[in-house]
């Protein structure tokens, strides 16, 4: 059993997840990278290696429950302790009632159910070690139901509720749970979603990592339930 300081990052192939992985590796964590795209994960792993860090990668469809559970069991068996979970993987499909029920379920499965399964599998590890930090990457859409994004908002409202419940449930076990709710972040998803802002007008992906690094630097008994991050031009 490996006792290296370990962080699991989902959606680690690009955007927020990639920046969190690179940053946590710089902080000395062995980063376990999870996403669908093997090639992009290998690129992230190579950058980490070039910078003197360590990582492992798992190219996996997080919506496939049996595959995900099997993968997590392998990780738990080899690494033992898990210090950090960045629950970041997500997708965006615009629309509310005009989308198909299949498209609606797809967003729920990745944005909410996959995160639930990760928590279900990894929280017992953190309970046993009496420590751990969980960062659920939600969205401003988890606090405000924006027009034409009802399915996405529904999934993110769900993740925010799950995060707050665990924030309260896990405090006695020494586990910190924080929901991070950014507005527009300069990522590929923002382009797909039709952000009205230029990249330099949005939150930068590395700002999400900096937020996590700050939270990890706090005294062990300090807890922050939720952080909302906005760019100046997204405030209205």
Automatic annotation (TrEMBL):
GO terms for molecular function: oxidoreductase activity. Pfam families: adh_short. GO terms for cellular component: membrane. It comes from the Bacteria. SUPFAM superfamilies: NAD(P)-binding Rossmann-fold domains. Keywords: Oxidoreductase. Belongs to the short-chain dehydrogenases/reductases (SDR) family. This is 3-oxoacyl-[acyl-carrier protein] reductase.
